[in-house]
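To fix ideas, we give here one paired sequence and structure record:
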Amino acid sequence: MLELLGLLQARVEWTAPELAARLGVTERTVRNDVARLRELGYPVDGVRGRTGHYRLGVGAKLPPLLLDDEEAVAVAVGLRTLTGVAGFEESGGRALTKLEHVLPDRLRRRVNSLREATEAGPVNTDSNVEDPEVDAGVLAEIADAVRDHRGLRAFYGADEARIEIEPYRLVAWQRRWFVVGRAPATGAWAPYRVDWLTLRIPGGRTFRPAPLPGDLTELVVREVARTGWAVHARLVVDAPAEEVLARINPAVGVVEPRPDGRSVLVTGGDSLEIVAVWIGMLGLDFTVESPDALVEHLRVLADRYAGAVAGSPGCPPPSRYRGAPVGPPS
């Protein structure tokens, strides 16, 4: 029956002889199994005659799931590790309880052994700022608006600016959720952080989707580097753009060439500490154009690192480092 269900999901229409041949059974067995699937709640439609066939219809309710061993274990483990989106933890826990209740004993033991034999490390190892939680209902509302071509009205950001956008896509990136949309008043495209959105009721008007200019990923990376972080930085790097691009992950920021052979890196992060780590890993000399707070933070780091190596053989005293240009050694 599981194989039969998989075939019905894989193709729109199947004749009884085709299904019987693929499953290695008789056509009568196919008819009996189709009847059993219908009893379980799966809407299998059948057409009689010379062109008769079966197809999986759209059901009015969620029928019982038929999972093989690996799929059942994968779902159980996935539900246990579901984190980061407010509202999903509770519903995920309920779903896991229901699933474990119907698992065969051998699979229940396997899931339990996996749980007892593993430990989850901290999920936020690359930031000193906790990941924002996004309400599942907000994500669902935005997804519905994308599907129905319905505008969104919202308060956005710390200053609660009033915005209206035509939502195009939801994007999960860098442990953040963004909705990419177009401002109907200006035609400008931008990604908006979902955790900075407070949706207003009623929503906006329906709209006719406009074609997205350029590549979706490039738009998100470019605009998030410019406006989507808590801290934004603009650095002049003493290297051509090609060399900088070869050293960074595209998710870090945007690189712009300069006529003098140097380049500008526009990047950001959720804190000054995060930005300092990223640009320190660049391995190139640079000058900070903005923000001033990043300059002061790097001065503190320079003194701290200088003090950490003071007294080492061949190392000049810390005073030699004070007042030096901001930037890591080449």
The radius of gyration is 28 Å. Residues 234 and 281 are 16 Å apart (CA to CA). The chain has a mean pLDDT of 80. The longest strand covers residues 161-173.
